[in-house]
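Appendix C reproduces, verbatim, an entry submitted by the partner laboratory led by Prof. M.T., so that reviewers can inspect both the input and the predicted structure.
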Amino acid sequence: MTRAQQTLYLSCYVGLIPLSAKVQDEIIPVLPLWALVSVGAYLLFHLGWGVATFKDAPEAHAELMTEIGLARKELRAKGVDVD
């Protein structure tokens, strides 16, 4: 939060900026919590969307399995039991 946003919120909160009583008493005090929940909901949606649209990578799987096979072979050569 920038200094200007902090100043604006504080001036609204203490009543330096004239607002209706309903806004002053019911909306302004919960505004930071509402903003935090909104950002959290956006991030959760973004994470869910990324998981839902995750694409498989068969080339990466094949490369990883090759590297695992090489690592096992090297460890067996050194006398380590890997299975």
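The two ends are 53 Å apart (CA to CA). Additional entries are available on request from the coordinating office.
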